[in-house]
Amino acid sequence: MLNRLTYFCLIECGFTGPNPSFMGNMSGLKYLDVSYNFDLERGQLGEWIGNLRGLETLGLGGVNLSTTGGPISSRLLSLPHLRNLWLSYNLDLKVNLFSIVQHSRQLEMLDLSWSNVAGVIPPSIGNLSTLQSLHLSGNSLTGSILWTLGVQKLPELDLGSNQLNGSLPSSFGNLSSLVWLDLSNNFLSGIIPPSIEQLSSLISLSLDHNNFHGTFLLSVLANLTELTQLYLSSNNMLTVKVNGFWIPKFQLQRLGLRSCNMEGDFPIFISTQYDIEYLELSNNSLKGDIPNCLWDVTYLYNLQFLDLSMNLFDRFAPAKIGKNQQPLVFLSLAKNNLHGGIPHSIYEGQLEVLDLSNNKLSGKISESIGNFSSTL
């Protein structure tokens, strides 16, 4: 009866030992996923996987594919209808990315993240016209990303945490189908091209921890009305600037601008980001008052993480901090120029982490610090 089974999912079931060979008898399978059974060995997977000729989706993420059983790549490439392939979190996996690209042109989703894939990404990957999702993060891939210009209909592209270099070409804006773009933790350089404004479908943009330089105006992103996540942190040669009274059309949930050489007063536009949960502006040169909007539940009612450390703020404007406040659990104002006493209302919140170190604060610490409902 197993040959009538079309869908078989065993994700995170805690199985151990060899991958059972009877799966090779499930000739009617279209979907097979045994991912994240970390103690499950592939056994003779390389021998029987080729029997599943109708397989369209295969998930082997987090399965021990380093054990004996013959090369797996050639067997995978023999599956004529394979559309979706997950092989992530196989650090000892030896996979030939070039072969997969050459012989699996019908792929719609390919995930080889954190699987010890090395070398240059073959430019021919741009010929995968049906590709909808490409995840290659956490590997040792090198070279430029010019090949991406060939995947103009690709919605999801994750190349984070590799060793990619070079610059983003001005024509990068032609990738107008992108919804999710992660190029973080690489060695990319040059300017962030203004043509990025053409990526109007973007929901998440991660360019943090690279070597971008020059001046980047956040207003360039004005057309990205669907944007909810923006990370530009730790581009130490990049200066991020915000027009004084600019109000974007997007509503961010997460914003990371750590170490972006920002100057001046607190960016006013953040007070309009009502959905924001995570806000990281540390290690800049922002100065003046910390605005009331950060503590007022009528503005940022979802804020949970706030890091304004290593700036030049000098005053607690918030009389309301902690009172009628959003569910803030992490607050760091360390290494600023804050002076005076700690507002009493700060003790009325739900904080789990509070860092006010290296300021010029004075007065007594209130006994109300014992009122925190969570462990501080």
UniProtKB/TrEMBL annotation:
Keyword Repeat: yes
Transmembrane segments: none
Annotated Gene3D superfamilies: Ribonuclease Inhibitor
One Pfam family cited in the UniProt record for this chain: LRR_8
Keyword flag Repeat: yes
Keyword line: Leucine-rich repeat, Repeat
Superkingdom of this protein's organism: Eukaryota
Coiled-coil intervals: none
Protein name, as recorded: Uncharacterized protein
Originating organism: Taxus chinensis
Lineage: Eukaryota, Viridiplantae, Streptophyta, Embryophyta, Tracheophyta
